[in-house]
Amino acid sequence: MDNHNEANGAKLIDGKAMAKGLTEEIRQEVDLLIKEGHPLPGLAVVLVGNDPASEVYVKNKAIQTHHAGMRSFMHMLPQSTSQKELLTLIEDLNKNPQIHGILIQLPLPEQIDPVLVTNAIDPAKDVDGLGEVNTGRLALGMTNGIVPCTPLGCLKLLQSVHPDMTGMNALIIGSSNLVGRPMAQLLLKENCTVTIAHIHTTNLPELARQADIIVVATGKAGLVRGDWVKPGATIIDVGITRVMQENGRSRLVGDVNFDEVKHVAGHITPVPGGVGPMTITCLLHNTFQAAKRLYEKQD
Ligand SMILES: Nc1nc(=O)c2c([nH]1)NC[C@@H]1CN(c3ccc(C(=O)N[C@@H](CCC(=O)O)C(=O)O)cc3)C=[N+]21
């Protein structure tokens, strides 16, 4: 499959096509598990509150879970849900043998501590990979942990262009627990020289111009400009912001000024159709792996 189309100089890395292929592979592996007599892998997604964007993502995750031949369990809780109520639900999901993966959609309402609830998930079911056990395993370079979905998707997109990243300068813009920090661990493991830039970084354009790889996850639409980019560099755009156009319709834009950067970069991911679909496929992959590991222990 050719996932690379021309984007006026830069080649597009087609995350949508790659995600479709990987989801199909997962579906075949799920079929094999079921033929061996194992129960269907199940994913529980918990959404607290009624943020419309989160609702779209969560529904999309449920649809994709079915495409991969797995079961999905949705839990939509009101904005006023207490931390105790959420912890009780997590306890139930931890014990439920039909559920192999648990995802608590972030961000959470302010009365709930995201670190506390994330750590309440059984590490074997923590398919977001955000709890302290899986975070620690990744930091130690262990291979038995679960890797967060968005950075894992970014890694697969990068590997499609660079099978060997040894010695490359990688700049990560954004230091969140969800993306920036785990991304740094993954690229370190690929033998990159990793720089993490964040809100207090003073010389961002200068750092960007030295980078062979840029992964940007800040939520600042259009942050990365054309003259920040080294010619031929590979750009992974994690940002996703909905903006209103003059015609009254909205469209999605990333953290990269695409129209400028496409003339300079070697490869670039589009928004939409880049990192987003790969994030969902990696969630399915993590859920399948969690189920498979459990079945292997039971055999
Ligand atoms: N615990 C947790 N884990 C997450 O992985 C997580 C989360 N919380 N909170 C919110 C962010 C956001 N996120 C996206 C997933 C898919 C698309 C996606 O499929 N985007 C499509 C477009 C979708 C559209 O049209 O709106 C695309 O880029 O092509 C976007 C965003 C996962 N997140």
From TrEMBL:
Keywords (A to Z) from UniProt: Amino-acid biosynthesis, Histidine biosynthesis, Hydrolase, Methionine biosynthesis, Multifunctional enzyme, NADP, One-carbon metabolism, Oxidoreductase, Purine biosynthesis
Protein name as catalogued: Bifunctional protein FolD
Domain Tetrahydrofolate dehydrogenase/cyclohydrolase NAD(P)-binding: 148-293
Classification lineage: Bacteria, Pseudomonadati, Pseudomonadota, Alphaproteobacteria, Acetobacterales
Subunit and interaction comment: Homodimer.
Gene Ontology cellular component annotations, sorted alphabetically: cytosol
Presence of keyword Cell cycle: no
One GO molecular-function entry: methenyltetrahydrofolate cyclohydrolase activity
Domain Tetrahydrofolate dehydrogenase/cyclohydrolase catalytic: start-end pairs: 13-128
Stated role: Catalyzes the oxidation of 5,10-methylenetetrahydrofolate to 5,10-methenyltetrahydrofolate and then the hydrolysis of 5,10-methenyltetrahydrofolate to 10-formyltetrahydrofolate.
Native source organism of the sequence: Aristophania vespae
PROSITE patterns: THF_DHG_CYH_1, THF_DHG_CYH_2
